[in-house]
Amino acid sequence: MTSYFFRLFISLMAFVCSFVCHAEPTLAEANYKIALATWSGYPESVAGFKKGLADKGLVEGQNVSFLVGKIGADKALQREVAEGFKQAEVDLVYSLTTPGTSIVKEVLPESTPIVYSIVTYPADSGLIESFEYSGNNLVGTSNYVPIRHYLKLLKLIVPMVKTVGIFHRKGEPNSKIQAVNMIRFLKREGIKAVDLHPENIEQVKALALEYADQVDAFMTTTDTLMQSGGESALIDVSLSKGIPILSSNKAGIENGSTFGPVADFYALAKISGEKAAKILLEAVEPRKLQSELQDPPLFLVNRASLKQLGITLSKQANAAVTWVDK
């Protein structure tokens, strides 16, 4: 009898072992491979994305590894990067910027989830159907800031403004949409807009110098040219000619642009990271998640630039802004 129960026990243990050995890997055991297509870098966004993943249990070096694509604001290069991700059969791609994400979407199969950030107009640019429903394998966060915030801050800082020169990269749909919408809203407020669309940094500087005596303020858009050196060139002209900059880029304000309502790339990326974790850990399709933006944005003002330009804020403006002391 004892021998019978012993054999029964051994058989039961063998069955349990067989089940465990073939069970799905646990969170601690699974190793997800995530590709990072970051266009020109954006380390703040990458850090936020990893934080969002880690908060949900996906920790680099433990159960997730990253395949980092080469950095460079060049479409041919980024196409090579995307092809490499495709061959590596990654589990998910984190993609930044409108042109970068467009390439990743085109190259990667629809079976590969793509989570994006720093895409200002994901629906208007054709990446997704809408914020509520992407209709495909994409979802993410937008750095779009509603135009009402630009107008509110512009009137708070330089209430007497009559003409604004808007800079956006020629041929980039993302910033063109932003510029067109801004021009429309400025017109409603009786403010003239000068549409300036340079192709490179040299043209940014040349146009800024040409129109410095014709506008009361410059404005930058959330495009790859402004974020890759164009705004720095504009800052030099701004400070030398005494023209304030209404900026769309947090880094631009930190580096010397005067003021602007901006999205926080780290905060947005953290949200994207949380979405990526949900996709990987819960097998949720991107189309079943909603894309998001940051509203209200941060009202940032560069204290040193404002002082150099001789602009004094009202009490109302002082109470509304966050200072950048650089």
Chain-wise SSE layout:
Blueprint: H1 2-21, E1 32-37, H2 43-55, E2 64-68, H3 75-88, E3 92-96, H4 98-107, E4 114-117, E5 138-142, H5 147-157, E6 163-167, H6 173-188, E7 192-196, H7 201-211, E8 217-220, H8 230-241, E9 245-246, H9 250-254, E10 259-262, H10 265-282, E11 292-293, E12 298-302, H11 303-308, H12 315-320, E13 322-324
Parallel strand pairs: 1-2, 1-3, 3-4, 4-5, 5-11, 6-7, 6-8, 8-9, 12-13
Antiparallel strand pairs: 10-12
- Helix and strand sequence: HEHEHEHEEHEHEHEHEHEHEEHHE
**What gap, in angstroms, lies between the N and C termini?**
84 Å
In terms of DSSP E residues, the strand content is 15-25%
CATH class of the largest domain: Alpha Beta
Q: What assembly state would you assign to the polypeptide chains in this entry?
A: single chain
How many β-strand stretches? Answer: 13
Superfamily (CATH H level) name of the largest domain: Response regulator
Strand order of the largest sheet: 2-1-3-4-5-11
Radius of gyration, whole Å? 24 Å
**Named CATH topology of the largest domain:** Rossmann fold
